[in-house]
Design brief:
With 280 residues, the chain is an alpha/beta fold. Helix 5 packs across helix 6. The longest helix is centred in the N-terminal third of the chain and has 16 residues. The protein is globular and about 55 Å long.
Length: 280
């Protein structure tokens, strides 16, 4: 009997019973493991931290993709930074977007997820609308001449390769390549246990954008209660769309979702007081 112990927190532990290890390798950038779990299905681990599972990935990926796209209402181009498992990409491509650029640092993650986690990515990486760039995300946003309606940062936690994607310089780079009215969203951890991750992002985003906040969703394998997703835009009306407007856009898009719906969209911006206090 083999147990995997996540090493994200120093004084909390999450353990999963490993069924069968399908793949393990130390890539140029990180230690990658994929194993089977009795109730969660296949699990992706990077540097001893759970990234996604077949059982609950839809909650995370649907929220990162559908909330900004349907809040915007007229998205033609999307930039995904990170997201090598393809889950966000699959959700974004459900919309009638014209172009998706995905910048991923580690080519191995994409190749292995296509082989071992097709339930997460499907055939998303074969879509002709995708421009896949293997590069450093921070360098890309600082140098690209393209503009995007939505930027989605699906990064690891601010450790190792993912640390730069939480920096003020990276956020400034995102702002420079957002089209007018564009929206930036990012994963920001579970603030009950990862307070600094959320607070630091808020303080770095606040001087750059007129509307900075978070929206929430519970992701079962990310311990600590609500996960926060960063939200930043110069359009203060984007997150104030009435339910009827979101319902109309959702119906027009014709997407299928297991977690996201227009009611969830409106409600996810209502933050518990303990999270509001971290933004004061």
């Amino acid at each position: 009997m083999t147990w995997f112990t996540e090493k994200l927190h120093t004084d909390w532990q999450l353990q999963l019973l490993v069924g069968k290890t399908l793949f393990e390798k130390k890539t140029e950038h990180q230690h990658l493991v994929i194993f089977e779990h009795a109730s969660l299905g296949r699990v992706l681990i990077l540097d001893d931290i759970i990234q996604t599972t077949e059982a609950d990935e839809f909650m995370y990926h649907e929220m990162l993709a559908h909330v900004p796209i349907l809040a915007h209402g007229n998205v033609r181009s999307v930039l995904i930074v990170g997201g090598g498992d393809g889950g966000v990409l699959k959700q974004v491509l459900k919309h009638g977007v014209e172009r998706v650029t995905q910048v991923e640092l580690d080519q191995s993650v994409i190749a292995l997820c296509c082989e071992y986690l097709p339930a997460v990515c499907g055939n998303a990486f074969d879509d002709p609308r995708l421009d896949l760039v293997i590069a450093d995300g921070a360098k890309f946003v600082a140098e690209t001449e393209q503009a995007f309606d939505v930027i989605i940062v699906d990064s690891t936690d601010p450790l190792g390769p993912g640390e730069v994607l939480f920096s003020a310089e990276f956020y400034a780079g995102c702002k420079r390549c957002l089209a007018p009215g564009g929206i930036l969203v990012s994963q920001n951890g579970c603030p009950f246990l990862q307070t600094d991750e959320m607070v630091d992002s808020y303080r770095r985003l606040r001087p750059l954008f007129t509307d900075v906040t978070f929206f929430v969703a519970p992701i079962p394998t990310y311990i600590g209660g609500f996960m926060t997703f960063g939200w930043a835009t110069m359009d203060e009306t984007a997150r104030q769309q009435p339910r009827e407007a979101i319902e109309s856009r959702y119906a027009e898009a014709g997407i299928e979702s297991r977690y996201y719906n227009p009611d969830i969209h409106v409600a996810c911006f209502a933050l518990p007081n303990y999270i509001r206090e971290l933004m004061s």
